Amino acid sequence: MLLLQTELSKNTFDHGENTKNAWCAHHIENIISLLTGSEKPFPCVFSRNACARELLCFLPIELNPSGNHNFSKLKKGIELYLKRCSKWAGDVNSAEPLLVIFESNNNKQYDKSAYEDIAFGAMQYLIDSDTQRWPDDLPTDPSDPFWSFCFQQTPLFINVSHPAHRLRKSRNLCDTLVLVINPRKRFDIVASAFEKKGINIRNKIRSNIDEYDKIQHSHLLGHYQIGESEWNQYSLPITNNEPPNKCPLVLPEKPSFDELPLDSGTCPHAAQTLKRENGRKAKTSENVGHEI
User: Distance (Å, rounded) from C-alpha 247 to C-alpha 116?
Assistant: First the structure.
């Protein structure tokens, strides 16, 4: 399901299960070419380093016959990716980014809104289908400065890149939608907002962006560790003059609950909601004035 850069070859998509992923072969080639180009180096030094060391992981998400993306494959693929990440020892030279590549419908015209609908729709699917409890120390309101997207109890940073970014070229990796995903703690370790080295790395990347893009880097780019909002860094506006958006993600009201045993026909989100409601009723019957 995950395609590892070290295992890619010219005939990767010519046999076996990968034949159905042949549509993404040229996307992967274009991404690797972009990250290894020397004439005008890609701004993110971490991406270039990972590509040079063949550490990239790719997850193709194809369209199903009804024209929708296979989000169940996305969920399974990220679960596999997080298992790989659990073995990371903190060395930037062994960090593997995940690039989720979405198949485009050749008969459809895409603009920024269309790409964002897919990207945030994918994130919402992960939230709704997550069977793990939301970390107790992580806010559930995206407007909270210390909120972060989370799946399987792992805070993630998600970079949304798509072809509608003609000015912000660093957010345009190929001619389809790509989500670049990393466990967020990596950035706290290798580019800490509390260490001079980390601050210098971030400033260098933003300086590189100013040289690479046809527009100055977005003022939305910030440091999570000092409480600068993260969700609006996922998908940056086309220009720097656009008004701020409201986060479209919807989280359960109080998602700090125990993991539930689910049967095959139960939606995790619905089951979690049912458990909270049952808990409220039980507390009420006991006359215990405590909010679940």
Answer: 11
Model confidence, pTM: 0.84
CA-CA-CA-CA torsion sign (160, 166, 170, 174): positive
- Look up residue 19 and give its DSSP letter: G
What span, in angstroms and rounded, lies between the C-alpha atoms of 142 and 281?
28
How many C-beta neighbours within 10 Å does residue 219 have? 8
Question: Tens of pLDDT along 50-105?
Answer: 999 999 999 999 999 999 999 999 999 999 999 999 999 889 999 999 999 999 99
The residue behind tokens 């909010």 is: 291
Sign of torsion, CA 122 233 180 198? negative
Residue 174 confidence class, pLDDT cut points 50, 70, 90: very high
**Interior CA angle at 148 toward 186 and 202, to 5°?**
45
Buried b (16+ CB within 10 A) or exposed e, 61-72: bebeeeeebbbe
Token code pair at residue 244: 């701020």
Indicate the average pLDDT of the chain: 86
CA 159/CA 179 separation, integer angstroms: 6
The pLDDT of residue 195 is above 50: yes
Place of tokens 């809104």: 113
For the chain, domain boundaries: 3-255, 257-292
